[in-house]
Amino acid sequence: MQEATMRQVGATNHAGFKYLTEEEYNQVKNDKKLKSVSYRILVGFGENEEFTKLYSECYYSEDENAKDSFSYPVKGKMPVNENEVVVSDKLLEALGETLDTGKNIKLDLNINGETISNEFTVSGYYEADPICPAQMIYVSKAFQEKYAPSPTVPFSKAVAGDEIGRYSVDFNFGNSINIEKKVGELIKRTGLREDVDYGINWAYGASNLDPSVLIICAVLVIIFMFAGYLIIYNIFDINIVSDIKEFGLLKTIGTTSKQLEKIVIKRANLISVMGIPIGTGLGVLVAAFLLPVISGQFDTITVGKGELHLNIWMLLGAALFSYLTVIFSSGKPCRKAAKVSPIETVKYTEEYDKKGKPKKKSAVVILSISLGIVILNSVFGFVSGFSMDNYVQDLIIADFSIQDAKLDAPGMRYTDTKAVSHELMDELNSLDGVNSISAVYMNDSDQEFSEETWAKIEKNVLQSELLDEKFASNGYSEDMRKDELDYRLDTKTLDGKTYGMGELAVDKLKVIESKDGSDKIDWDTFNSGNYVLVTRFRTDNDKVNFFDLGDKISIRSYDPKYAETKKAVSESGEEIEYQSFDNAPVKEYEVYAVVEIPIALGYRHYSLFDCDYILSDEEFLSLNGNDWNAMRVIMDVEDSKEGYVNDWLKNYTKTVNPSMNYDSKESITDEYAALGRMFEVVGSVISVILGLIGLMNFANTIITSILVRSRELAMLEAVGMTPDQQRIRLMKEGGRYFVWSAVVSLLVSTVLNLTLIKALANEVPMFDWNFTLLPNLICLPILLILVIIIPVIAYNRMNKVSVVDRLRIE
Question: Is the entire prediction scored with pTM above 0.70?
Answer without folding.
Answer: no
